[in-house]
Amino acid sequence: FDWFHSRTASHIPNPNGSVAWWAQDPWGSEGPTLYIEGISPTWGAFSLRPMYNVNFDKLRRLTLSQGGKYCDWIIRRSQLITPLLARRTGRPVRCVNERRNDYYPANPQRYCHVKIGFKNDGLIVAVEETTIADQGAPDDTPAFGNFEATFSPFNTTRCVNQKSTFQSVYTNSGRNTLSQTSPFNWDAMTIAEQIVAEKLDMDVIDVALKNVHGPSSQKDPGIPPSLLMCIEKGKKAMNWKWHPAGTKKLPDGRLHGLSFRYAMSPRHAFQPYTATVTVQGDNKVYVPLKGPWCGTYSADACALVVAEEMGAKVEDVILLYDEKAIFTPVGGGSDGTTASAWVMKEAAVACKKKLLEHAAWKLKVKPEDLDTKDSMIYLKSNPSQCYPLGKFIAEEGFGDHDLDITATYFGRPPATTWNQRGHVLDVMNTSFCEVAVDPETGGVEVTKYVVVCDPGKVLRMTSFEGQLHQAMFLSQGGLSEEFIYDKATGVKLSTNMFEYKKPTILDLGPIETYAVETRSGNACYGASGISHCMAAPLLPVCAVANAIGHWIVPPVTPDKVLKALGKG
Model-level pTM? Predict the structure, then answer.
């Protein structure tokens, strides 16, 4: 079968741009400092420092809020050129892209041809994938798709007879940012298992369970417990009743369709973090960080971890945003949250140890005789004997000198199973989609999404839910996304966000999210990143195929539906 990967319905919420100026920092060393708004403190230095020959002490990235992103970290020319113009004009300069000049390069469009061989019981025994991907404008960086090809979703199955060929081509699109897609070619397996289910008159979930391998290897005959729990909860929430393609009508006459996919919950944690936790005499716990403040609320998740480890009230953990701080809570979406929180946990453990040692010296007891709860240090043998966290620190103060107890930790979580590319499995997730197709108008309505995800451990519930809602919003793009090409030359004409038709929140059906917590991830409290693995732009497309009994190449527009039904 042939399929192509949607770029997914997403773009960053704010226009790309910046305002920059040069000035002497009154608190810094001699020489002009570059001040720039529009680039968060976490990003941009790798481009700005060599371009303008500035060190970190001469670079002030002042935008703490960046909104939500889906792994699009590339800095646009509108953000890089303003320092040059400001230096030449001697005044602040602003440059902001309109939507006509903006583009979303994180997810390369790709075309795939897939061959699968399977037995009569639904077991897939051979897979061959051939992919051509839009790499965007030429660059000297390698094609990321070649790396992605090694992460075939079929690695999560018992099928070891696999061949994958990946080719990248340059186009007039925005340069691809070496970022993951949905992730990778995962939709190939979603489509393949549904086709097998159709051919053999099987439930697509039974096909998936027939093929997935156990936790330890592709030779493991078991099924990951995390996946079984996700499926069980999802089927119940969905009131799952699979039916052959094109065979079920709703009372209002519309055709009913279902689709299902599973995935591993990947996270990478390639980069280390440096985290600092400080207790001061005002009984507050301080966490200095440079941001950014973004839609995943990663910093808030880290604050919850600090409160847990320090025995402090959540409201007593203060996030000190400072663009010159070292710590950042992000590094790859939800993966950044879980990995950075693991490092933050270690810093909090070390800080509490120092705090109890100091308090024990003051109270003339052993550190192991003490513990903390609700921002108080108490004696285990007599919990009523308790003191505020900062009491003994404040007593050390002299005059106006602020004292504190501080611990800093540098490192990263243990290695992840994600790096083994699906050959080993632990935390898993499932997505279910239900659609209703009007056979008279060709209109498609997604009536329900159900997402059951095992993030290992939820660190912050609304962040978890937000990641899943965003992923289903991305998935909706498989129905509406469309690119326009010049028929004579093949040149892509719709290369910006003005002409890109993405769904709005009003186009989405109800989304139900559920957590399964096995604590089997590698990060803080067994947590795992989840965001990349959940986006499935072919999930609603598969549901339409189940509804009408015909496969449609996205976008699934009414005219295509009617044509497939013989009414076009």
Answer: 0.91
